[in-house]
Amino acid sequence: MALRHLIQTSDLSNDEIRHIFARTANISESDKVLQNKRFITIFFENSTRTLSSFEIAIKNLGGEVIRLDIANSSTAKGESIADTAATLNAMQPHAIITRHKSAGAPNFLTQFTSCPIINGGDGAHAHPTQALLDLYTMATHFGSLDTKDSNVSQQEICLRGLDSMRGKRIAIVGDIKNSRVANSNIALLTRFGVDVTLVAPPHFLYKTRIKTAYNLRKVIDNIDIIMALRTQTERHNTQIYGSLKDYANRFCVTKDLLGNRDIIVLHPGPVHRNIDIDDEILADSRCKILQQVENGVKIRMSVMEFFCGNS
């Protein structure tokens, strides 16, 4: 079997995504498909959710994780990431999971490894497992609404929900230009027929054929899902808006904005409270952020099984 990597969502076919979702619905810690396998995580950027999620997913399936401490590694002495990757590859891990501030870094590392590279996020380019867990969260939500039979399995609910995503409408709100989450979700959701609108100040957008809007209130009556994004100030060379308060006035997801509308709210985290989403909505049942975190572990279990498991 040819060596495969997960750099972006297009590395998986729609059928393969359906397979991963079906496994996600059923996968459990009793499935020790990574037994006696070792994995290395190399995160050149800070992470709470993605790093922990991958490590828990691997351990749940019986694998062993070695986390490379970047601050105390040879990269701090000037070693190139190519040499770092080649050195770690010589230790014969079964996969390397990486995050880097530079777009294209995980794809670059594939030249120096003989094991799968799994992208945990690269610059403003891609975050494939985040997009997968986001779509899975949406599919399970809508699948459960469409299913009245209590005897239907979670797998069938998920797959029905995935089929029902065609025609659903999502507003992705915030710092689109700097968001790998937005890029991966746009690519993945449109493949499954989701109608996407990007909502942001003009300077947070790039040229695109996707529909755009400059005010969330203008589209609120025509969407089923809101995905709020963090304003990524660390990727801005200068402050490009008047103030976070000014930004929040037009783009924060609030109780007043949502009212009683049947809209679910997602966010990849970390959330800037009362800038991205207000406190009331974070405590609202329509907010699915913690379900995203829970689903993230299961999706990454299925992804690691797919790329590295004892099939």
TrEMBL record:
The keyword Transferase applies. GO terms for biological process: 'de novo' pyrimidine nucleobase biosynthetic process; 'de novo' UMP biosynthetic process; amino acid metabolic process. Keywords: Pyrimidine biosynthesis, Transferase. Pfam families: OTCace, OTCace_N. InterPro entries: Asp/Orn_carbamoyltranf_P-bd (IPR006132), Asp/Orn_carbamoylTrfase (IPR006130), Asp/Orn_carbamoylTrfase_sf (IPR036901), Asp_carbamoyltransf (IPR002082), Asp_carbamoyltransf_Asp/Orn-bd (IPR006131). Its EC number is 2.1.3.2. One of its GO terms (cellular component) is cytosol. Residues 4-139 form the Aspartate/ornithine carbamoyltransferase carbamoyl-P binding domain. Residues 167-306 form the Aspartate/ornithine carbamoyltransferase Asp/Orn-binding domain. GO terms for molecular function: amino acid binding; aspartate carbamoyltransferase activity. It catalyses: carbamoyl phosphate + L-aspartate = N-carbamoyl-L-aspartate + phosphate + H(+). Pathway: Pyrimidine metabolism; UMP biosynthesis via de novo pathway; (S)-dihydroorotate from bicarbonate: step 2/3. Heterododecamer (2C3:3R2) of six catalytic PyrB chains organized as two trimers (C3), and six regulatory PyrI chains organized as three dimers (R2). Catalyzes the condensation of carbamoyl phosphate and aspartate to form carbamoyl aspartate and inorganic phosphate, the committed step in the de novo pyrimidine nucleotide biosynthesis pathway. This is Aspartate carbamoyltransferase. It comes from Helicobacter didelphidarum. The lineage of its organism: Bacteria, Pseudomonadati, Campylobacterota, Epsilonproteobacteria, Campylobacterales.
